[in-house]
Design a protein that fits this description.
By secondary structure, the protein is an alpha/beta fold. The protein contains 17 helices and nine strands. The strands form two sheets. It has a seven-stranded mixed sheet, sandwiched between helices. Strand 5 and strand 6 form a beta hairpin.
């Protein structure tokens, strides 16, 4: 494994001349299009080269952009964010030739006696049903999607070919690993729901390689897996909140089912992983004391680690609990084996269709009754350290069919002025947030969608 990192030949080098930002994962509310505006705002309340804390760092886009000119501490309560930000802020030299050889060996071994071998019954059934769907007979593929995750599978119909294949896969998983063993985590939790069964099993093999590494190399490889997963995911909007529904409300199979599935389920995880690794290795940051920390915002602001001159904060805007959109990435980053949350309706309790992990983080900024206190905590702790604050927030226009915000601009300004001497509110201009791809699932665009609170 040492041959993958810090080799002299065929190693990716950093292109310091490139300045094009990129978004590692599909991320709601991405700031990709306003990075220069944010950089100017941070510069207006700090000296050149002063350290900055990106307090709700998410996909790391802002952290990576600011790290081109100043030390950055990326802070987020989600592990997937810490991993991605760590990879962006401390690019790792990777020997692609050695890595590709390691990938081939790991996948061949998995096919012979590992997770890919265990998944073979489901892989073969999915492949044959996809061929049938491409020829105009999508019923079997629809039934396979409706069967869901192996973790939530039913085995009450011995004549059901999907259940038979799932039962055989479960038998092989237990024989090959232990059914709770992490080597088959992606397959068991997310195969058939967010990825094809083959993709899920291959991601398990790639995760195994990544977890043999340590430190920055491990973060870089896991981050590349998260980027690849965001590219591979087969859902509406390329996020992890809404698995495909194969039928319409009338029970008819959707005409677009095959085209939606074929768009993603034939992609190679290894190719997506290597492509992501190359982009991460070219992260354009200065060699400064950058950090990526997993922490609750309040805990970090009261910790001795908090010593940045300026804080950039981008808390959640709406009642939507964003962790629902990234729970798969969080599980991949943690590589744990979490219980699945349940829903109760009409007296019946069933596993969540999205295979959500239990105890997902619920931000107080998303809860109307808790948001005022959360903002007060944020403002008071930043100001008490003598740091400046740049806060992003998107207002709710009652004249538009938009997702309601839990706080208004005036409410936030009133709290901010209790803690800062100067509070300026500036419009970012004609900018609208990343949304889901289907227009019927979206709310109307607000072209005055982003404001900055610049607090001194």
């Amino acid at each position: 494994m040492a041959g993958i990192v810090d080799q002299d030949q065929e190693v990716l080098s950093l292109d310091r001349g490139a300045t094009v930002p990129w978004r590692p994962i599909h991320y709601l509310g991405s700031k990709l299009r306003v990075l220069e505006t944010l950089e100017d705002a941070v510069g207006s309340v700090s000296s050149s080269g002063d350290s900055v804390c990106d307090l709700f760092s998410g996909s790391g886009t802002v952290s990576a952009w600011l790290a081109r000119s100043r030390p950055v501490t990326a802070v987020d309560i989600q592990e997937y964010s810490r991993v991605i930000c760590g990879a962006l802020l401390k690019p790792q030299r990777i020997c692609i030739h050695a890595l590709e050889e390691e990938l081939r060996e790991a996948i061949n071994l998995s096919r012979q006696a590992g997770t890919l071998f265990a998944a073979t019954p489901m892989i073969e059934l999915e492949q044959s049903s996809l061929v049938e769907a491409s020829n105009g007979s999508p019923e079997n593929f629809a039934r396979l999607i409706e069967a869901g995750s192996l973790m939530t599978a039913h085995f009450d119909d011995p004549a059901n070919d999907v259940q038979k294949a799932m039962a055989e896969t479960w038998y092989r998983v237990r024989s090959t690993h232990n059914e709770q063993y992490v080597n088959s985590m992606v397959l068991r939790h997310f195969g058939g729901v967010y990825f094809s069964y083959c993709q899920a099993a291959e991601l398990d093999a790639i995760l195994e390689i990544a977890h043999r590494q340590t430190g920055t190399a491990r973060d870089t490889m896991i981050a590349a897996i998260l980027v690849a997963a965001s590219e591979l995911v087969n859902t509406v909007g390329k996020q992890f909140a809404q698995p495909l529904r194969p039928r319409d409300k009338g029970g008819r199979i959707k005409k677009t089912l095959y085209s939606q599935a074929a768009r993603d389920r034939y992609k190679s995880p290894s190719d997506a992983f290597v492509a992501a690794l190359k982009k991460l290795s070219l992260s354009q940051v200065l060699d400064l004391e950058h950090r990526a920390i997993r922490s609750d915002y309040s805990d970090y602001l009261t910790s001795p680690d908090f010593n940045e001159s300026v804080v950039y904060a981008d808390p959640p805007y709406t009642r939507d609990h964003y962790s629902r959109f990234y729970h798969v990435l969080e599980t991949l980053a943690l590589r744990d084996d979490p219980p699945i949350s349940t829903n109760t309706a009409h007296g019946r309790t069933t596993p969540s269709r999205g295979v959500y992990r239990v105890n997902r983080h619920q931000s107080p900024f998303c809860i109307r009754s808790q948001a005022p206190s959360a903002f007060a905590t944020l403002f008071s702790k930043v100001s008490s350290k003598g740091s400046s604050l740049v806060l992003s927030y998107s207002p709710y226009s009652s004249e538009k069919n938009a997702h309601p915000r839990v706080m208004t601009l005036d409410q936030i300004r009133a709290i901010a002025t209790s803690y800062f001497t100067s509070v300026e509110v500036e419009s970012v201009g004609e900018f609208f947030h990343s949304r889901l791809n289907r227009t019927d699932l979206n709310k109307e665009v607000s072209f005055d969608a982003e404001y900055l609170f610049v607090c001194r």
